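Protocol step 4 of 5: obtain the predicted structure for the target chain.
Materials: sequence only (see below). No template structures provided, no constraints applied. The aim of this step is simply to have a reference model before the mutagenesis design in step 5. Sequence pasted as it appears in the construct record:
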Amino acid sequence: MFFIRRLLNALFNIRFLPAVLATALFLSMVPGSAPQAQEYPWQPVEQLDFPLQSPGVPAYARLELLVPNFDVPNNNRWAAIVFYRDPACVPPDFDLGQFFHPPGPGGPGAYACPLLVEGHEIWDTPPRHGLSPIYVRTRNAVPNLPVWFVAWDELRPILESGQVFIGDITALPSLIRGSANWYEEALYPNGAAEIPGITLRSEGKLEDGGRFWLRWHFTNRGAEDQVTIRLWRNKRIHR
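Step 4 output (structure tokens):
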């Protein structure tokens, strides 16, 4: 497992560009490994590390209703919600389905909450308001990144209503809180990348002492949508 993680780090980290192709070839032969959304852009680009050079995405969680079929990873039984910021810091009246909560006249938005992830953004143009990077590489900056799991048949009606609030999620009977000791995400943002998509992988523990394993590969508006969610609880395996 340690060897595979070292290879994944090489794949995601642009400091090892000469090794990317060889690493990708190896990973394609590893059972159960998910490909990245697309090849890394090879043209000269600008990199901004967050949160040192960039404040990072003004969002609380990987939950979005702005792009069709791109709400949350789910396997039709369980859905997973990864939090970039402390769930306790999410304003109760903020619609998480909007994803972005930028600063404005009313306050700093999501930037009022400490960022729990770190990584870097790749830009093909000078960064400015209204534009997005073409690639974002994210990893957990804390050893207990919040990852919550809820029954898909409970969450789906809320998402279909067009709005979802943090109170809606915490009220779900099926809610299982987890914390990731390992989280990796490669994002090609919609509207900026040639082929939008996301690939994420995570492992960690559940609040009842169990373990979880999460994989999601989504690209080209759902042309590919592969989800693996495994929860080990009380000596029972839920898939």
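Step 4 remarks: The longest strand covers residues 176-188. Residues 1-42 have pLDDT under 50 and may be disordered.
Proceed to step 5.
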